[in-house]
Structures are given as C-alpha cells and as structure tokens.
Amino acid sequence: MLAIKIINVSVRDVRFPTSLEQHGSDAMHTDPDYSVAYVVLETDKAELKGYGLTFTVGRGTEIVVCAVKALSTLVVGKTLEEITSDFRGFYRLLSSDGQMRWIGPEKGVIHLATAAVLNAVWDLWARVERKPLWKLLVDMDPAKLISCIDFRYLTDALTEQEALDILVKGKKDQKSREEQMLKEGYPAYTTSCAWLGYTDQQLTQLCNEALAQGWTKFKVKVGADLQDDIRRCSLIRKLIGPNNTLMIDANQRWDVNEAITWVTKLAEFQPLWIEEPTCPDDILGHASISKALAPLGIGVASGEQCHNRVMFKQFLQASALQFVQIDSCRVGSVNENLATILMAAKFNVPVCPHAGGVGLCELVQHLILFDYISVSASLSNRMCEFVDHLHEHFKSPTVIRNAKYIPPKDPGFSCEMLEESVKKHQYPEGEVWRAIEKQQK
Ligand SMILES: C[C@H](O)[C@@H](O)CC(=O)C(=O)O
Ligand SMILES: [Mg+2]
C-alpha cells in the first residue's frame, strides 16, 4: 500500500468571514477572517487522498497558496514508501531546497506552506495504516519516530539518543494511558467566551453557557487598553469564581517592561499565564518577563507564532517560557512538533497546544494525545486550547465531552473538509464571498 504514488497536489484558498462578528479578535488581529490553504494530495489510487491544511488569516492566504504551489514540484511523483522510509530526508528536501530556502529558512510563509504539505502527507500515511494519526504515532517504534525528526541545530540541547531514551521510557504503562484517554479524554480550556471584540454582555452570556457545559478553564484576550482589561478580567473572574483557571493573552502587543507593568496590574485576577506578552521572536525579552512575573505566580506561554524548533530550543534553554504552545500548522508539521515535544519533555516544561482558528483543534488534538500517552505521561499543568468555531466544516470534527477532547477514531489527521464548505468559502469565487461583495457594493 505504501507503494502508492502522489500524482497531483491541489491547493485552495478557503476563507471564513469571522471578522464580521469579531470572532477571533485580539489586541493585534482586530479583524481576522479565519482561513486555510487547503491541500489535497491525489494518488494513483483514485480513492486514496491525503488532506492537509495550514491556518492563516484573510488576505495572507493567497501568498501561502502560492508557496504551496512552489513546493508541490518536490512532492509530485514521490511514493509514500519513498517519503516514509526517509521522512527526515523528505522534511529536509522541503525545508532546505537550495533556491526556496532563501525565503525562509524554516520560517514565515514558506514554512506555513511546508506545514500544509507535510500535514497532508501524514494524513495520507495514517489513512493507509487505517489509524487516526495519534494512534499511528503511539504505535510507532521509537527508532522510526526518531527517524522522522531533523535534529540539525538541536543536538546541543537534545541528542538523538536522549530523544530515543525519552520515547523508550514513555512506552512504560502506555497502554493504560491510551485506555484512560479513550475513556476520559484530554483536558481542554476554552477561548471562545472572551475575544477582544466581544461586548461584556456577550462575554457574560458565553461564560455562563460554558460553565453550564462543564468548562473550568478560560482564556481572555487583553492588551489594548488597561482599564478595559481590568474590567473584563474582573467580570470573568467573578463569573468563574476563585477556583476555576484563568489565562490571559496579549498577542504580542507590549514592549518587555510594559508587559511586566501591565500584567502586574492584572495579577489580582490570578492568571495562570500571560500568553505572547511581547514580540514572539524576543527570547531574552520573554526570559525577563518570566523572571519578573514568577514571584506573582504567573507563567509565560508562547508558541503559536514561534517559527521553528530552534527557537523553541532557545526559549527552553533560556527559561523564557513556562508553557510550550505547539501549533500544528506554524512549523514543519508532525516532524518538527515531535522535536519540540521531546525537548519540552527534557526541560520538564508542559506542552499546552495552541488551537482554534480553522482546523487547528482537529489537528493538534492528535499531537497532545501522543504527548500524554507516549512522552510526558503527565496531565499536571497541561491542557489543550479549544475554540468553538467552524468545526461543522470538517468531515471528522473534534468531539468535546465534559470539557475534554475525545480521541478521534477515523483514520487520518482529521483535516479533510466537506467539499460543499470548501466550494462555498473558496476565495473569491465561493458564494459566501460573492454575497459579501454584493452587499458591500
Ligand atoms: C487571531 C487569532 O484568533 C488569535 O487571537 C488566536 C490566539 O491567540 C489564541 O487562540 O491563543
Ligand atoms: Mg494566543
């Protein structure tokens, strides 16, 4: 079955007009239209396809689509066997192409495109093995998993042998953790109640609904106006009570000292973490913020815009974050996220993935299940983000029960979209966008 050949890569620009209702708004992205570059790998077995995507926002999507087209020449003609027998080599082929790497390397648009393509390859592999991706990873021999990771630039922090040792150790009691996940699910928190553009009335209503559904951990957007933040954090803390968990997210709005002063003023609301307090590239800045906020019991979380494994390495080496927020589409897919998960395990820092957007929850649930079952074996200070938007457009949408992700059962990486949804939301020709254009005229 692995002999199947990829004969075509199609990519489409699919956008959802979420900005109309301020869903997803934060201190830096005030009008996000949640979007994806949606990739389908066609194979020489007509019934077998690989589906992948990367999350983007609005107008940026067409640039990512262009980058996927550029990468597709490296993929067409390859068999799944060729790719998976040397996945590290294939990762390098995509990320280190002699001409295209100049516009990265391993960062920005080209890396988002790499994520979309590799996500589709992993989806195809899991479908061929007739397993959901998390199960493919959990069942995989540790040495094979290691062979998928590019350790270049990492070995001063994590060697292949150390990574292998972590995975071998993770095999102990793996079966019982898998059974626990299938029965109980993986703990989640919600960001859906408190986007920055929501009114206090909306926030109150959504928060009460979430509490009634069993949610106990909530994230609120901050960073644009201190008095607004104090009012909103006070409101949400009153609604959820002293024992539930609150996190705050500034989406890179502040300078380093400003972040420390601002968050100190919000400390009375007892946030567990401040997320993306400053520029996502400023590792030493995050370290200063972490040091200053530690006495207040507030950690720093980051990762949704962390370019690659090398930056995660430095964040960990510099004790610059206390929560690692892997993202299934920002970096080079499962291959690179495996490296980050293993580094986080070595540095003993919890992984709490970024999700939301379009499809990010569907994808990242597989990675966090793998982290718990095969690597960290711990739920302490760990949870996965959940955002309740746009799941209806997926063939195998996330299942949440009692504020927990229930492990997906369908084969693949859960990123196949409904063709009807793709057609309707394709930009600019889909009927949803044509109707908006007509209204605006
Ligand atoms: C623009 C996105 O909605 C962003 O605000 C998401 C985010 O920061 C998060 O979910 O965390
Ligand atoms: Mg965030």
From TrEMBL:
Its EC number is 4.2.1.68. Pfam families: MR_MLE_C, MR_MLE_N. GO terms for molecular function: hydro-lyase activity; L-fuconate dehydratase activity; magnesium ion binding. Keywords: Lyase, Magnesium, Metal-binding. It catalyses: L-fuconate = 2-dehydro-3-deoxy-L-fuconate + H2O. GO terms for biological process: amino acid catabolic process; carbohydrate catabolic process. This is Mitochondrial enolase superfamily member 1. It comes from Danio rerio. The lineage of its organism: Eukaryota, Metazoa, Chordata, Craniata, Vertebrata.
